[in-house]
Amino acid sequence: MPRALSQNLKIMGEQIMLARKRRHLSMQDIADRATVTRLTVSKVEHGDPTVSMGIYARVLFALDALGRQLQDAELLRNGWSSESHEARFNGRVVKDEDKVK
């Protein structure tokens, strides 16, 4: 494997680890959400080139989904609601069924 590719995988692994830690999640939390083992999450965080890109994608998806849930919870804790925001900035309330999921 070219050295540059190996270095990029290590950097990506470090960034994944930092994203997990910023969310205050354990490797097991991510492993459960990504349906992989904790050992596999560890390999991803170390930039192991033997882990498939599909696994990297599942771990990233798990981090993104959990990150959004945490951000939503924080917004709700601070009294923000999507309806009040939309009414204020768009002049109308968008119903849940109208929103893109």
How is this structure best described in words?
The chain has 101 residues and is mainly alpha-helical. The protein has helices at residues 3-22, 27-34, 38-45, 53-77, 82-90. α2 (27-34) packs across α3 (38-45) and α2 crosses α4 (53-77). The longest helix has 25 residues, at 53-77. The radius of gyration is 18 Å and the shape is elongated. It starts with a helix and ends in an 11-residue tail after the last helix. The model is unreliable at 91-95 and 97-101 (pLDDT under 50).
Based on DSSP secondary structure assignment, what is the total number of beta strands?
0
Structural class: mainly alpha
Distance between the termini: 39 Å
Number of helices: 5
Structural Rg: 18 Å
Blueprint (SSEs and pairs):
Elements: H1 3-22, H2 27-34, H3 38-45, H4 53-77, H5 82-90
Helix pairs in contact: 2-3, 2-4
Which terms would index this structure?
disordered C terminus; 101 residues; mainly alpha; 0% strand
Short description:
The chain is an all-alpha fold and 101 residues long.
